[in-house]
C-alpha cells in the first residue's frame, strides 16, 4: 500500500519544481500553471469522500487497483500534452482525473493498513506509514529537478513504473475485500463535488477577478451554500456518503480542524518555496529540490516522534507541540526570506517541517481510531477531504496574496527606475505573470526606456518577490497558530481507552 500511494505523494510536489519549465514551453500564465497544480488538489478534495465510501462498498483491493489505473493513465496523458492553444485545458482536465485516481486509491490503501493493526499500535504504524510516504514526497522535488533537466514531461511519466510495481504487489499481497451491502449515495457525491468546486474556484479566481468582484463571492458563497445543503441532505440519509455522526466526537472534530489548518501550510509550501528559490535565490530546479529537503528532514524525524507520543499519551500533546513548533518555524523562516541566503534559512525550514510532522500522523491516526463500526475507508475519506480542500484553499488564497503584493511592490520598483507612469501598472502585471523561476536569464529585450529600466530593476524585482513571499509564509504561521487554539479543545487520552470498540458502532451497521 505504501508503494501504491507513493505516486500520489510524489505528485503533490514534483509538478511544482517543473512549473517554470511548463510555463516557458507551453506559454502558460502564472495563474494558469497554478490551476494545473490546483486542479489535482481540488479533485482530490472533491472525490476523497466518494473514494472512501467506495472502498467500504466495493472492497479496498478493487478500489486500490482501479485508482492506480486511473492515476497512471492520466499521468501518461498529462505528459503527452500538445504544444498549442489546447495545452492548458488538456493539462487541467487530466490533472483533475489524476486527482480522481488518487482519491480512489488513498482511502482504500490506508483502510487496508489501519485494519492490520490494533488501536493501541496504530500510532507507531501510521507514523511509519506517513513518515516514509512523506519521504517519498521529498523524492518528488529531487525527481522533478533531475527529470526536468531532460524534459518536464517526464515528471508525469515517472509514475508508470511505480504503478506497475504497485499493481503487481497488490495482486501478490492477496488483500481480502471486505464489502458492505449498501447503496451508493450518488446525490450526495454530486453535491459535495459541486460545492467544493465552486468555492475553490472563487478563491482561485479572486486574484484575476478581484475580491470586490461579484463573481468571486458568488462562487465562494454558492459553493459553501451547496456544502451546507449537502450536510443537511446527508443527515436524512440511511446510508449517506459521509456519516456526519462521527463529528459528535469532540476528539474527531478537533483532529479534523487541526488537520485543516496544518494543511493550509503543508502542500502550498512546496509550490511557493520552490518558486521562491528559483526566482529570488536564482536556484536551479535541482537546487530548489534540495532547498525543500530541509523541510522534509524536520518532517520525517518529528512524524516518528509524534507517533510514539500518540501511542503513549494520546494525540493532544503532539498536536499542541506541532502547532507551536510549526508556527514559530514558519514565522522565523518568513523573516529570513529577504536575506536571499539558503544557508541562513535551513534551520527554520526544518523547524517548520517538524511542526507539520508532529501533527499529521497523530491527528490522522486518532481520527481514524474514532471510526464508526470500523468504517476506515469512510472516515479516511472525511479526513482526506478536509486535508485536500484546505490545501486547495491555501494555494488559492496565498496565490492571491502573492500576486497582489508582488504587483504593488514591482510597481514601486518601476517608479523608482524611471518607467513612465502610464506603463507601470501593465508592466508590473506582466512581470508578476512572467515569474517563471529564471528571472535573471529572461531579462527584457528592446531598446526602449521601459525595457532598459526593467533590465536595471531585475535584482530589485527578485527582492520584491522575496518580500511578497514573506506575507505567504506569515500566513502559514498564522494558520498553525489557529490550529493550536483548536488543539486546546482536544479531550485528550487514547481512543482505545476512551471509547470501547462497541461504542463506535452504528446501531444498524452490519457485522464485518
UniProtKB/TrEMBL annotation:
User: Where do the TM regions start and end?
Assistant: 34-51, 63-82, 102-119, 126-148, 154-172, 184-203, 215-235, 256-276, 288-306, 318-334, 346-363, 471-490
Q: Where in the cell is it found?
A: Cell membrane
- Coiled coil regions, renumbered to chain: none
Do you know which InterPro entries this protein is assigned to?
Answer: MFS (IPR011701), MFS_dom (IPR020846), MFS_trans_sf (IPR036259)
Primary residence: membrane
User: Where does the UniProt annotation place the signal sequence?
Assistant: none
Under Pfam families, the record lists:
MFS_1
In this chain the Major facilitator superfamily (MFS) profile domain maps to: 1-495
UniProtKB keywords: Antibiotic resistance, Membrane, Transmembrane, Transmembrane helix
| Membrane protein topology class | Multi-pass membrane protein
Task: Spell out the protein name for this chain.
Answer: MFS transporter
Q: What organism is recorded for this protein?
A: Streptomyces althioticus subsp. attaecolombicae
Amino acid at each position: 500500500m505504501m508503494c501504491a500511494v507513493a505516486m500520489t505523494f510524489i505528485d503533490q510536489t514534483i509538478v511544482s519544481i517543473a512549473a517554470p519549465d511548463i510555463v516557458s514551453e507551453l506559454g502558460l500564465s502564472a495563474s494558469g500553471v497554478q490551476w494545473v497544480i490546483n486542479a489535482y488538489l481540488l479533485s482530490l478534495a472533491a472525490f476523497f469522500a466518494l473514494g472512501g465510501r467506495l472502498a467500504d462498498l466495493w472492497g479496498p483491493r478493487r478500489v486500490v487497483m482501479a485508482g492506480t489505473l486511473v492515476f497512471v493513465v492520466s499521468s501518461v496523458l498529462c505528459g503527452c500534452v500538445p504544444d498549442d492553444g489546447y495545452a492548458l485545458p488538456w493539462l487541467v482536465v487530466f490533472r483533475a482525473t489524476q486527482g480522481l485516481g488518487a482519491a480512489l486509491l488513498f482511502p482504500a490503501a490506508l483502510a487496508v493498513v489501519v485494519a492490520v493493526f490494533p488501536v493501541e499500535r496504530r500510532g507507531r504504524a501510521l507514523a511509519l506509514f506517513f513518515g516514509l510516504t512523506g519521504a517519498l514526497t521529498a523524492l518528488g522535488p529531487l525527481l522533478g529537478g533531475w527529470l526536468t533537466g531532460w524534459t518536464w514531461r517526464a515528471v508525469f511519466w515517472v509514475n508508470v513504473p511505480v504503478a506497475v510495481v504497485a499493481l503487481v504487489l497488490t495482486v501478490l499481497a492477496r488483500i481480502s475485500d471486505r464489502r458492505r451491502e449498501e447503496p451508493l449515495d450518488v446525490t450526495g457525491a454530486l453535491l459535495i463535488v459541486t460545492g467544493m468546486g465552486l468555492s475553490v474556484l472563487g478563491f482561485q479566481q479572486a486574484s484575476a477577478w478581484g475580491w470586490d468582484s461579484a463573481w468571486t463571492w458568488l462562487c465562494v458563497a454558492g459553493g459553501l451554500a451547496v456544502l451546507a445543503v449537502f450536510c443537511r441532505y446527508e443527515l436524512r440519509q440511511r446510508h449517506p456518503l459521509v456519516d456526519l455522526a462521527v463529528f459528535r466526537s469532540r476528539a474527531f472534530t478537533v483532529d479534523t480542524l487541526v488537520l485543516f489548518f496544518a494543511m493550509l501550510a503543508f502542500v502550498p509550501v512546496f509550490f511557493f518555496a520552490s518558486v521562491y528559490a528559483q526566482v529570488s535565490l536564482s536556484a536551479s530546479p535541482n537546487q530548489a529540490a534540495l532547498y525543500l529537503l530541509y523541510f522534509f528532514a524536520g518532517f520525517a524525524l518529528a512524524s516518528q516522534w509524534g507517533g510514539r507520543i500518540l501511542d503513549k499519551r494520546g494525540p493532544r500533546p503532539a498536536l499542541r507541540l506541532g502547532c507551536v513548533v510549526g508556527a514559530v518555524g514558519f514565522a522565523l523562516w518568513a523573516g529570513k526570506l529577504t536575506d536571499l541566503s539558503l544557508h541562513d534559512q535551513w534551520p527554520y525550514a526544518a523547524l517548520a517541517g517538524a511542526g507539520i510532522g508532529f501533527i499529521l500522523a497523530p491527528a490522522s491516526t486518532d481520527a481514524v481510531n474514532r471510526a464508526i463500526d470500523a468504517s476506515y475507508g469512510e472516515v479516511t475519506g472525511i479526513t482526506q477531504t478536509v486535508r485536500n480542500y484546505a490545501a486547495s484553499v491555501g494555494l488559492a488564497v496565498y496565490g492571491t496574496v502573492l500576486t497582489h503584493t508582488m504587483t504593488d511592490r514591482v510597481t514601486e520598483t518601476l517608479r523608482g527606475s524611471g518607467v513612465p507612469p502610464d506603463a507601470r501598472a501593465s508592466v508590473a502585471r506582466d512581470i508578476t505573470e512572467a515569474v517563471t523561476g529564471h528571472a535573471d536569464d529572461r531579462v527584457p529585450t528592446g531598446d526602449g526606456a521601459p525595457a532598459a529600466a526593467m533590465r536595471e530593476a531585475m535584482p530589485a524585482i527578485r527582492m520584491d518577490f522575496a518580500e511578497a513571499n514573506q506575507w505567504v509564509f506569515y500566513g502559514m504561521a498564522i494558520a498553525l497558530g489557529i490550529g493550536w487554539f483548536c488543539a486546546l479543545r482536544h479531550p485528550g487520552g487514547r481512543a482505545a481507552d476512551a471509547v470501547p470498540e462497541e461504542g463506535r458502532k452504528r446501531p444498524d451497521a452490519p457485522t464485518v
